[in-house]
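> call design_seq(struct)
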């Protein structure tokens, strides 16, 4: 069994797809080593186990909207794209989405998956309560009133199987998406990224001149009454629809050209019915404090000649600060540097230490679900609440059933 990218062959001895909560409880209680799998979109061995791998996709789907509280309780195995349709039909929305709607809600939340927007937290920040089945097979609920809650949302599957999440809702809203090209590389990127509801910068790290790489595109998602200027920090509206990877057919992409549409049909870059991104790729993403973003980009620029040959596209985004212990945006407004690589595992893995060294002065954190080579102590020291998280995981899973090689490497006392 492979992950979405095909670069991870799961080592699990057995794969389970329970169809009832009792079946799930029984499976977890009886397992010696176990991990829960979402939609398998992560690029590393975070979700892997040598024991039992459990998918929750067969549990009864629930999308229960509480209109009085403006919340929805959803099953963890559902994908964002499936839930978004139902929310919109009922007049509701989530504040933000990732670049693709194909990922499971529990899996995305577990890794701190995010979209863009200086005022938008990652997807986990919409979580108001979670229900999980522990290693012992017990069902527990945690909400924002529980002191353990900040450690239980971005939890990397270490605490149990998340069967349901309650998410905050906002009234449904319309978004327009405009793509610009020709943004100068010395543009004030912090200002550019803050100008709109959700802005992404794309670069292929190819040189536009002797000194600097180029930005290929800017994707500006804004409310319909905020059309954006005809010239955006020196960039011009794209002529025709664009895929973030130059030259790729844009059919898989959500509508552009400023045409207003529902939030879930504009905030993701890719449509649910199509393969997102390239499909044949690896991914890496690093996070630095927002204020350090321009300096971090300047530190990456000298590596352009090594990055470009391995790269399909790089995306720069922002994430609002939160208080979730293992969130990559924990405690700090964040700028995110994402890399979609050609599927060249060896070459990419060999290059990552140079990128990580360039970003190390900025307190770099890595996306939990993507490729990275940061040393254990660098990962650990990036999260002030790491020891509390490890203690919480030990409390809920004293035998370490959910501990796999990834956990043993990065989540240690
Ligand atoms: C094409 C593509 C585009 C992407 N775009 C973005 C993006 O825009 N922004 C971003 O931040 N990331 C992005 N990612 C990364 C992706 O969002 C994360 O890897 C995310 O974790 C994938 O969710 P999943 O359901 O596939 O989780 P999986 O990879 O299946 O699992 C991830 C982790 O979640 C745990 N988990 C899953 N389900 C449960 C559950 N029910 N209970 C407990 N633990 C669980 C697993 O044990 C594992 O630790 C992208 C990935 C791909 C392939």
């Amino acid at each position: 069994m492979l992950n979405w990218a095909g670069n991870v062959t799961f080592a699990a001895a057995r794969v389970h797809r329970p169809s009832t909560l009792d079946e799930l409880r029984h499976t977890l209680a009886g397992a010696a080593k176990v991990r829960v799998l979402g939609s398998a979109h992560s690029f590393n061995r975070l979700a892997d186990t040598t024991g039992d791998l459990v998918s929750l996709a067969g549990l009864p789907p629930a999308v229960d909207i509480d209109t009085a509280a403006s919340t929805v309780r959803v099953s963890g195995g559902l994908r964002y794209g499936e839930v978004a349709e139902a929310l919109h039909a009922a007049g509701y929305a989530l504040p933000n989405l990732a670049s693709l709607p194909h990922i499971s809600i529990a899996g995305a939340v577990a890794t701190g998956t995010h979209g863009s927007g200086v005022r938008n937290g990652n997807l986990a920040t919409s979580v108001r309560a979670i229900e999980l089945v522990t290693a012992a097979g017990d069902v527990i609920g945690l909400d924002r009133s529980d002191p353990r809650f900040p450690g239980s949302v971005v939890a990397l599957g270490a605490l149990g199987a998340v069967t349901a999440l309650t998410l905050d809702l906002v009234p449904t809203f319309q978004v327009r998406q405009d793509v610009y090209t020709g943004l100068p590389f010395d543009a004030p990127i912090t200002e550019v990224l803050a100008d709109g509801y959700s802005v992404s910068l794309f670069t292929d790290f190819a040189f536009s001149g002797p000194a600097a790489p180029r930005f290929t595109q800017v994707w500006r998602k804004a409310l319909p009454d905020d059309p954006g200027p005809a010239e955006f920090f020196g960039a011009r509206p794209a002529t025709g629809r664009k895929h973030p990877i130059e030259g790729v057919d844009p059919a898989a992409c959500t509508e552009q050209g400023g045409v207003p549409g529902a939030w879930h049909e504009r905030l993701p870059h890719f449509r649910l019915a199509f393969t997102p991104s390239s499909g044949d790729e690896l991914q890496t993403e690093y996070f630095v404090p927002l204020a350090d973003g321009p300096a971090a980009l300047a530190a990456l620029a000298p590596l352009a000649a090594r990055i470009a040959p391995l790269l399909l596209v790089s995306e720069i985004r922002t994430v609002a600060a939160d208080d979730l212990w293992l969130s990559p945006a924990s405690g700090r407004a964040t700028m995110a540097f994402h890399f979609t690589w050609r599927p060249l595992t060896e070459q990419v893995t060999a290059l990552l230490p140079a990128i990580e060294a360039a970003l190390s002065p900025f307190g770099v954190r890595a996306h939990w679900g993507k490729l990275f080579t940061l040393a254990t102590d660098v990962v650990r020291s990036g999260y002030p609440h790491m020891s509390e998280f490890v203690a919480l995981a030990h409390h809920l899973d004293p035998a370490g059933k959910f501990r796999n090689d990834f956990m043993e490497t990065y989540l240690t006392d």
